[in-house]
Amino acid sequence: MSEPVALSRATALDNNPRSRGPRLRGGARNLSPWTEYAIRRGGGVLLSLAILVVVTFFMVPLIPGDPAVAVAGADATSEQIDAIRHSLGLNDPLWLRFLNYVGDLATGNLGNSFAYSTSVTTIIATKLPYTAELALLGITAVLLISIPAGMSVGILTRGNRRKWLDVAFGMVTGFFQAVPQYVLATILVVLFAITWRILPAAGAATLTALILPVVGLSVGPICSISRVVRRETSTVLEQDYLRTARGWRLPALRLYARHTLPNLLTTALTLAGLILSGMLGGAIIIENVFNWPGVGKEIVTAIVNKDYPVIQGIILVLGFLAIVLNLLVDVILGLIDPRTLGGKRSNG
Amino acid sequence: MAKTPRTPGRRFRWTPGLLIGVVMMSVMVAIAVVAPLFLTSSAETLTANPSQGPSAEHWLGTDDFGRDVLARSLVATRLTLLMTVSTTIMAVVGGIAIGTAVWLAPAKVRNGALRLIEAAVAYPSLIFALLIAAILGQGTWSAVLAIAIASIPAFSRLTANMAASISQRNYVSTARLLGVPGPRIITRHLLPNMAEPLLILTATVFATTLIELSSLSFIGLGVQNPEYDFGRLLNEALVNIYSQPLQAVMPSIMITVTGLSAMLIGDGLAAASDPRGGRRHRTRRQASELPASLRSSADALVEVDNLTITAPTGKELVKGLSLSIRAGEVVGLVGESGSGKSLTAMSIAGLLPEELTVSARTLRVGDLDLLGRNDPRRMATEIGLVYQDPGTTFNPALRMGSQLTEVSRVHLKESRTTAVAKMVKALADIRITRPESRMKQYPHQLSGGMLQRAMIATSLVSDPKLIIADEPTTALDVTVQADVLRQFRSINRERGTAMLFISHDIGVVQALCDTVIVMNGGKVLERLTGADLAKGNVKHPYTKALLAATPSMSERKTELVALRSDAFNLDEEIEEVSP
Question: pTM value?
Answer without folding.
Answer: 0.78
